[in-house]
From TrEMBL:
GO terms for cellular component: ATP-binding cassette (ABC) transporter complex. This is Polar amino acid ABC transporter, inner membrane subunit. Keywords: Amino-acid transport, Cell inner membrane, Cell membrane, Membrane, Transmembrane, Transmembrane helix, Transport. The lineage of its organism: Bacteria, Pseudomonadati, Pseudomonadota, Gammaproteobacteria, Oceanospirillales. One of its GO terms (molecular function) is transmembrane transporter activity. PROSITE patterns: ABC_TM1. Signal peptide: none annotated. It is found in: Cell inner membrane; Cell membrane. It comes from Marinomonas posidonica (strain CECT 7376 / NCIMB 14433 / IVIA-Po-181). Residues 19-218 form the ABC transmembrane type-1 domain.
Length: 234
């Protein structure tokens, strides 16, 4: 078995291609989900009942339905909605490929989790700091860029790291909608060589290595956002 594990029987390129697809999918989904999370968190703090109800319904729906169900609903739903729009305007039918469908789906799902993480961080920032920034003549955008955002990130890093770890694992679910990611490549190689277990074991090791590198990156980010911050000792 170990010999088979290290002897990839000509499928090394396929596995590397699948691993690269998984990395691209997770990184792009991560940044889109973070952007959606920030927007949703800010919308929840806005003095608009409509915005609050819409964003609350969004986060409640996402947290209450399994990821696999949401992924299938969104994948087939998005394609159907795009088809309806194309038909309504008389456009040529647009087919969404599995990669972009996976990015949209993961960003939509994990944007809800990011929004709760950012909302909690925003609530921890003293209002006096925001008022002081505005009193010094900073615009709302400048206040967010130089005062709110650095503190929000410092308080959110542990939560962001946790969501990232879960998102990496969730990328494996995208293989069910036809994306040639690492899991799909491992299963294909395993079936062709009649050694599925070994290739899946190798895929698991590659996911673990990816996670370990991610932990190191988040550790550096945590130190970066804590520069000049002295934690109180209880």
């Amino acid at each position: 078995m170990m010999n088979s594990l290290f002897h990839l029987e000509g499928y090394g390129g396929l596995l590397l291609s699948g691993a690269w697809m998984t990395i691209k999918l997770s990184l792009l989904s991560f940044f889109c989900a973070m952007l959606l999370g920030v927007i949703t968190a800010l919308a929840k703090r806005a003095k608009s009942t409509t915005l609050y109800l819409i964003t609350s319904a969004y986060t409640t729906l996402i947290r209450g339905v399994p990821d696999l169900v949401l992924m299938l609903l969104l994948f087939y739903g998005i394609q159907s909605w795009v088809g309806d729009v194309c038909m309504y305007f008389g456009w040529e039918y647009i087919v969404i490929d599995p990669f972009h469908a996976g990015v949209i789906t993961l960003a939509f799902i994990y944007g809800a989790y990011f929004s709760e993480t950012f909302r909690g961080a925003l609530q921890s920032i003293p209002k006096g700091q925001i008022e002081a920034a505005l009193a010094y003549g900073l615009t709302n955008i400048q206040s967010f860029r130089f005062v709110i955002f650095p503190q929000m990130m410092r308080l959110s890093i542990p939560g962001i790291s946790n969501i990232w770890q879960v998102m990496i694992k969730a990328t494996a679910l995208v293989s069910i909608i036809g994306l040639n990611d690492l899991i799909n490549a491992a299963v294909e190689a395993g079936k062709s060589t009649n050694n599925v277990f070994s290739f899946l074991l190798l895929a698991g090791a590659m996911y673990l290595a990816y996670t370990m590198v991610s932990n190191a990156v988040f550790s550096k980010l945590n130190r970066y956002f804590h520069v000049g911050i002295k934690e109180s000792k209880s």
